[in-house]
């Protein structure tokens, strides 16, 4: 018997179908209501749907269901399309009784836990495609729950996705062809599923990762998947999609245990997002993660070019933010070893940026001051960097130079650095005096400790107190000078004797230089006061 087609259905403006209105309306509550509003027996009616879920493919499936007297083969490959089309068209029990499409799809969805890995992926992809048109989040969450559950079982018992057999009370493990191929090409059994889940969009990846974290998945594996996902998708999408992917990956990495995210991965992400305008929240999270692992970074990692519009050669502000993140929890949380590693790294970075003629003194100071004194065992590298900076920035005022010299802990400068500083014309004379005094005190302490009376008897040195003019005095300007006495050491300490003589000579040389510079300083200060009393200003105090 021929069935006339008296109804035209336009699906989302993409395709039109000519169907029998009585056949379709007998299963669809929505269409029945629409046709019930039409007057008379006008033939060739037209219905237009603008937001039909699954578009033309879905409408074709439900038409087949209606023309087959409520019968259709429901499979994982079409269940999502049929399910949401049934909801949209109101194909429920109130319209067609036991033959309604909605209940049939609901019953099939209850069998989801028995589906193969490939079937789950197909259903998940269909749900993802339907997201803009309909609210399929409950079904999406169910699919993702099955995916994560399958991965959890697979990680415990097999490198392949697991599935429960409907014929057996036990659990069996099966691998479909795609998963087997993924396993063969993977370097680790725990990563066979990475390529399969590249079909997911950023939103679904976020839902997946949150579910995995809740189920206490290995965070290292999750972080590796996120990196693999971004690296695989990044060069195949447009700039807007790149930004969305980067933000999603950063946000998900941030909720993981930071020890599970490699520093190398974070710096790669930083490089690729330099020219992408990711949101401020994601950028702050990325910088915070890098800062917390700064002791694992290399100098090359930190040499990030400055953003457009900034004259600095390298992005000094970025490194300062890294350092602030590293110190955010307080130095008590950073072990001495980690702190010293960062100190060495920062000194290398300062030496690298010091020759930049566009680097302002305030930025240089901020870099050198950000770490506590405990981060440096020696200030020699910082001295060399400041020496280079003064070489390039010859126009700095005395005050600016003294601010740089205040960075030093003179006690942690080596003898060679102190002597070099005292003879370095680029440095203020007060800093040279301070270096000599510090070295003198250090050597005296060493000699005194070596010449402990408990070990060697009476001290072989006599101590005289002299002022700047060489007279005995006890005022605030006095300098203690060691004079050689008789060394009363045993023959087996000949090496120690030579060492002490050498130190004694260096003390005397340093003392001479110190006295000479103090005399010059006194004359210089006096002449400045006399020549320009109204405009005179005192030199900065020596740094302690």
Quick structural gist:
The chain has 544 residues and is mainly alpha-helical.
How do the helices and strands line up, and which of them pair or pack?
Elements: E1 7-11, E2 15-19, H1 21-25, H2 29-36, E3 45-49, H3 55-67, H4 79-88, H5 93-96, H6 101-109, H7 117-130, H8 137-157, E4 162-164, E5 171-173, H9 177-185, H10 202-214, H11 219-234, H12 239-254, H13 263-272, H14 280-292, H15 299-302, H16 316-327, H17 336-353, H18 361-369, H19 380-392, H20 398-405, H21 415-422, H22 429-450, H23 453-456, E6 461-466, E7 479-484, H24 494-531
Parallel strand pairs: 1-3
Antiparallel strand pairs: 1-2, 4-5, 6-7
Organism: Rosa chinensis (China rose)
Family: Belongs to the NPH3 family.
Protein name: Putative SKP1/BTB/POZ domain, NPH3 domain-containing protein
Number of strands: 7
Query: How confident overall, as mean pLDDT?
Result: 79
What would you say the CATH architecture of the domain at 7-154 is?
2-Layer Sandwich
Shape: elongated
Q: Give the strand content.
A: 5-15%
Radius of gyration: 39 Å
Q: Looking at CATH, which topology of the domain at 7-154 would you report?
A: Potassium Channel Kv1.1, Chain A
**Helical residue percent band:** 40-55%
| Distance, first to last CA | 107 Å
As laid out across the biggest beta sheet, the strand order is 2-1-3
CATH class of the domain at 7-154: Alpha Beta
CATH superfamily assignment of the domain at 7-154? Potassium Channel Kv1.1, Chain A
Report on the biggest sheet. 3 strands, mixed
Question: Which regions have little confidence, pLDDT < 50, spanning 5+ residues?
Answer: 158-187, 453-493, 532-544
Domain BTB: 5-69
Pfam family, one: NPH3
Family: Belongs to the NPH3 family.
GO biological process, one term: protein ubiquitination
